[in-house]
Task: structure prediction
Amino acid sequence: MPVEYGGYVSASAVFYLITSVYAGLVSGDGAHVTGVASEARGAQRIKTMYNPNLIYDVGMHLGEDTGYYLKKGFKVIGFEANPELVAACKRRFIDQIKSDQLIIVEGAIAPSNFGDTVTLYQSSESALGTIDGDWNKRYLTLGFSSSRPSIQVKRIEFVDIINRYGVPFYLKIDIEGGDRHVLRTLEGFTSRPKHISIESERANFADLESELKMLRDLGYDRFRAIQQTTVPGSSIITKDLEGNFVEHTFPEHSSGGFGDHT
Result:
């Protein structure tokens, strides 16, 4: 069940939120924590244009979320490290790519110390590919096979993408162990996405606290915890950017709605 808390989140409320989230995660179920920005805080160095019609889908997989964002009329920058998934998305969204509504960034977002290329550990479950060795070991422990070989992929400097395309209205992050690096990148910008979503830590309570603190330090003070297993198969009636009604049913692996529609 989603845990919602409006307004400013006090220290005690944050503790209530993360304990509620953690209770639902230790079983291995996935969840997303979404935040709403009030005022950008922390290190502020780079001034980059904020685009209210732009969404970043960081970890697009097969485009389960991208399809929803495009249907709502947003321009989407999708990030995917797995070449096979990139090829599938290019086939699925050929028209949106041609019209420049969708741009796919191929490669793995990672810190500069990784070098120009990054090892992508592939899994029997395509959604669980990761560049983090510890996360890969965790998935092996949970019974997911590593029968597919690891591959080398291009490293993506996330700050360069923001400088090129601007700060998005909504930033969805789901890259299996790399979410916090993306969050840290935002510390260097004066603007923040209005809405942000990360895949929350599910194995280490201290790491989960750290994630919530990082969001607070970035200026996010309203949070919702979404149990991701409840999203697939659910439907929503919303409006696109032009005010037209849009109906959508979320597929498997979807993160669901965002903002007022979580």
About this structure: The two ends are 12 Å apart (CA to CA).
